[in-house]
Amino acid sequence: MQRPTIYFVTTNAGKLREARALFQDYFDVEQVDMAYPELQDEDLSKIAAYGARYCADLLGREVIVEDSGLFIDALNGFPGPYSSYVQKTIGNKGILKLMEGVEGRRAEFRSVVGYCKPGEEPTTFTGIWWGDILYEETGTNGFGFDPIFSYRRFPVGEMTLEQKNEVSHRRRSMIAFRDWYLSKTK
C-alpha cells in the first residue's frame, strides 16, 4: 500500500522539520512553500481554518496549515496570534524587554493545525504547551521564541528536535491531526 502524502503549506523550515519528524512513520510530508492571506482574529482555530480552506481551494488538494502563537500571561496574552509579526519586528530581545521586572512569567505556546479538502469545511486540532518566559535567551536550538521559553525549567533553546517533539504544542496538535487522519483512512 502506498503511503499517503500530506501537503503542508508553510514557509517555515522549522515547522516543516518538526512535522516531518512527527509524521515519518505514517505518511510523507510535502511542503507547499507559499504564503497565503491570514485572517486577522484573536482565535488561532479560526485563523488556521481560514488558511486551510483558502489553500485547499486554491491548490485543489487536501492540505494542512499550522498557526501558532506565544501567549504570555503578564502581557495579557501578547503576542498571541501576532507572534510571527512580533518575532520579525521586536524579536526575543523585545519580549524580554517588555518582561523586565515582571515576576509572573507563565506563558503558553498554542498550535492549531488546520486540515481541509477542496470545497469542504476545515477541521482543526489544537495543542497547548505551558511553560515560563526566561530572563535571557538561552540555547541556539529551535526557532522563533524557543530561546526565551522554558518547559519544566528546561530551556527549549537547549532541547534537541527529538526532545522538543516529545512535549511541544506542535507535537500535540500534529499528533491529534495524525490520529484523526489515520482513523479516517482505515
From TrEMBL:
EC number: 3.6.1.66
Binding site for substrate: 10-15, 68, 143-146, 164, 169-170
Cellular component terms per the entry's GO annotation: cytoplasm
Description of how the protein assembles with itself and partners: Homodimer.
Listed name of the protein: dITP/XTP pyrophosphatase
Source organism of the structure: Methanocella conradii (strain DSM 24694 / JCM 17849 / CGMCC 1.5162 / HZ254)
Ligand binding (Mg(2+)): 38, 67
Record's function text: Pyrophosphatase that catalyzes the hydrolysis of nucleoside triphosphates to their monophosphate derivatives, with a high preference for the non-canonical purine nucleotides XTP (xanthosine triphosphate), dITP (deoxyinosine triphosphate) and ITP. Seems to function as a house-cleaning enzyme that removes non-canonical purine nucleotides from the nucleotide pool, thus preventing their incorporation into DNA/RNA and avoiding chromosomal lesions.
Necessary cofactors: Mg(2+)
Enzyme class: hydrolase
Cofactor remark: Binds 1 Mg(2+) ion per subunit.
Active-site annotation: 67
PANTHER family on file: INOSINE TRIPHOSPHATE PYROPHOSPHATASE (PTHR11067:SF9), INOSINE TRIPHOSPHATE PYROPHOSPHATASE/HAM1 PROTEIN (PTHR11067)
Magnesium as UniProt keyword: yes
